[in-house]
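Q: what does this look like with acetyl coenzyme *A bound?
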Amino acid sequence: MAKDTVTITDNVTGKTVELPIYHGTQGPAAVDISRFYSELGYVTYDPGFQSTASCHSSITYIDGQQGVLQYRGYPIEQLAEKSSFLEVAHLLLYGELPKQEELVGFTRNITRHTMINETLKNFYNGFNHDAHPMAIMVGVVGSLSAFYHDALDIRNPQHREIAAHRLIAKMPTIAAACYKHSIGEPFVYPRNNLSYCGNLLNMMFSVPCEEYVVDPVAERALDLIFILHADHEQNASTSTIRLAGSSAANPFACVASGIAALWGPAHGGANEAVLHMLDEIGSVDNIPKYIEKAKDKNDPFRLMGFGHRIYRNFDPRATLIRKMCHEVLTKLGKQDDPLFELALKLEEVALNDDYFKERKLYPNVDFYSGIIYKVLGIPTNMFTVMFSIARTVGWVAQWMEMIGDPNQRIARPRQLYDGAAKRDYVQVDRR
Ligand code: ACO
C-alpha cells in the first residue's frame, strides 16, 4: 500500500499530527487514525461507521456510486453468468478460481462434511415447532463448537480450514433440518451425488416415502442467488463476525453471532420483511398509501428491500436477480403471479417518486430474492436462513483473512461518553 500523509492541526491546542494515507488497489484511500488518541488525545466519532474502514481486506470490492461489486477482482456479473457457487466459494476462501482438479478436490472436501452428528439432532427437539428458524440456526450453529474439539486451535491454519469447510458443508443440512422440524417431517440425510443447491433442495423437500427429483430451474436459481449473496465486504453481520473473532473466539460461535446480526430486518431479514410488506400492501391500489407512509417521518414504515448504505446508484446484485426473477417466473409459468405484479408496480412507483430519487433509494438484492424463494416453494421464514447459508462462505473467508493477519488485534472501539458526571452514592432512604 503506497503511503502519503495528511496533516491535522488542532485549532484548540495548536498541536499538529501527520497521519499516513493508505491507497488500496481500488476505492477511496484511508487515513490511518490509530495514533490520533495518543498524539492529540481525541477519539474519533463515526456512528454507523460511515467513514471508517475497520480493516484492510483483499476479498470483496464495492463501488457504491458506480454499482460495482467484485469478488477477488472478478465482476459479479461474470461470476453470476459463468461460475457456480462452490467455484465462487473457492475463489473467496483461497483468492483464486480453482483449476479443474482443485474444484474436484474442494467439492469433495465440502461434500464429505455435509452430515451432522446424530446427537446434534436432539437440539432441534428443544425448540417449539413454531420457533423462528433463524433462532434455531443461531443455537445449532453455535453448538457445533461442542462437537469439534479436535480442530479448534484457531492459530493452526489447517484447523481454520477444516472449520471453514465444516461450516460451508453443514449449513444446508442444519438449515433443511430447521424446516423439517417446523413441519414435523423426518430429517433427510445429505446426498453427496447432488450439487450443493440440489442437495439443499432435496433435504428440504424430499420425504422418505416418495421419489423426489431436483428441478434444474430451482437448482440454478438458488445457485445464482447464493453467488450473489456469498460476500459483501464489511456489512453488519461480517463486521460482527470479525469483532467476535478478534477475541479469538471459535469460528462456530463467530458464525452464530453473524447469523444473529443477519436476522435484523435492516440487513438480511429484509428479504422476509419484503414479503410481509407485499402481503400487507395487498393490491396495487394500496401502493400510493404505502409510498406516503414510507415518506412520512412520523411513521416507522419503510419500503423494505429499498435503500442501501453503500449503493447510492443501483445494487448490481438487484439488476442480476431482477432478470433472474423474470426468467424463473416465466420458466415455471408464474409470470402473472399477482405478488410479482405488485412488486413490479411498487418498484415503478418508488423509482419515479422524488423522495426516493433524491435520496438515491433503489431496490436492493432482497427486494427480489424473496419473490424467487416464494415461487420455489420456500417458506417466508426460511428466506433469511437461505441467505445465511450463502453468506457463510464470505463470513469464513473474512474470518480466515483476519485470523491469518499477523497484525490482528482485538477489536475494541472507543466511545463518546455522555452519561452522568461523577457523583456520590446516596443511601436508599435519602434518595
Ligand atoms: N424507505 C423509506 N425511506 C428510506 C428507506 C426506505 N427503505 N431507506 C432509507 N430511507 C430514507 C431515510 O429515512 C433517510 O431519509 P432522511 O435523509 O430524510 O432522514 C434517508 O433515506 C437515508 O437513510 P438512512 O437510514 O440514513 O440510510 P442508511 O444507510 O443508514 O440505511 C438501510 C440503509 C438500513 C438499508 C435503509 O435503507 C433501510 O432501512 N432499508 C430497508 C431495509 C432493507 O431493505 N435492508 C436490506 C439492505 S441489503 C442487505 O443487507 C442485504
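The two ends are 59 Å apart (CA to CA). The CA atoms of residues 9 and 16 lie 4 Å apart.
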